[in-house]
Amino acid sequence: MPTLQTGLIYALAALAEIAGCFSFWAWLRLDKSAWWVAPGMVSLAIFAWLLTLVDTSAAGRAFAAYGGVYIAASLIWLWSVEGARPDRWDVIGAAICLVGAGLILVGPGRSA
């Protein structure tokens, strides 16, 4: 699977996971209706399905590499949805995680 396609899958998975988790956050922490949970559960199911599309022989490797993307996407969510701008330490930390995710995916002998 081309790296660009894997990146797109991870980006969509991150959006689905963060949206699903945020629905629970909104219900339990922001006093929104419990109806927020239903679309959140659908979103979390889509997230899980998307990760199965990553071309790797081991689920754990797909999940580990996804972790770096999730961290970066969470900071984008923080800024775009919650209105809190990430600081330089957030950005540096996310960059380090993305480099690590790339190494996990495309290191020697990797198929993705």
Helices and strands in order:
Layout: H1 3-29, H2 37-51, H3 59-80, H4 88-106
Explain how this protein is built:
The protein has 112 residues and is mainly α. The chain has one domain (3-106). It has helices at 3-29, 37-51, 59-80, 88-106. It is flat, with a radius of gyration of 15 Å. The N and C termini lie close together (6 Å). Pfam families: UPF0060. It is a multi-pass membrane protein. Keywords: Cell membrane, Membrane, Transmembrane, Transmembrane helix. It is found in: Cell membrane. Belongs to the UPF0060 family.
Helical content stands at over 70%
Distance separating the two termini: 6 Å
Q: How do the helices and strands follow one another from N- to C-terminus?
A: HHHH
Report the mean per-residue pLDDT as an integer.
Answer: 91
Classification by helices and strands: mainly alpha
Radius of gyration: 15 Å
Number of domains: 1
- Strand content of the residues, in percent? under 5%
Give a short account of the largest sheet. Answer: none
Instruction: Label the overall shape.
Output: flat
Parts with pLDDT < 50 across at least 5 consecutive residues:
none
Number of continuous helical runs: 4
What is the count of β-strands?
0
Keyword list:
112 residues, membrane, 0% strand, transmembrane, cell membrane
In short:
With 112 residues, the protein is mainly alpha-helical. It contains 4 helices and no strands.
